[in-house]
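Help needed: design a sequence for this.
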């Protein structure tokens, strides 16, 4: 549980750093065992970051070996892994750093359009 809580806090802190106009009241790490998303967002936070975040920190997840292959093969491009299991929707896997970089660029572009 401690590893999961630490991952939630990392995501929360990363988002607060990325969006300095938001506060700890806008982005909160959910207590362990509660239902719903792991990172709770206020309405203001949802405008900047419209994602429901679920955090899982497990000892071993097979997707990492697949992601390593994407990293190896991506060269100078951002590694992106698309996975799908039978009877489920395809999922996209990015590193947290790459994902936040995309969100930051999008937020900056949106801000410059408003100015």
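Sure. Designed sequence:
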């Amino acid at each position: 549980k401690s590893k999961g809580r630490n991952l939630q806090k990392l995501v929360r802190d990363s988002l607060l750093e990325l969006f300095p106009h938001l506060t700890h009241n806008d982005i909160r790490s959910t207590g362990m065992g509660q239902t719903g998303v792991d990172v709770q967002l206020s309405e203001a936070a949802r405008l900047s970051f419209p994602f429901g975040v679920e955090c899982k920190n497990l000892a071993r997840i097979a997707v990492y070996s697949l992601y390593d292959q994407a990293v190896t093969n991506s060269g100078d491009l951002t590694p992106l892994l698309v996975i799908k299991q039978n009877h489920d929707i395809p999922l996209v896997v990015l590193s947290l750093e790459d994902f936040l970089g995309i969100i930051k660029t999008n937020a900056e572009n949106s801000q410059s359009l408003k100015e």
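The mean pLDDT is 92.
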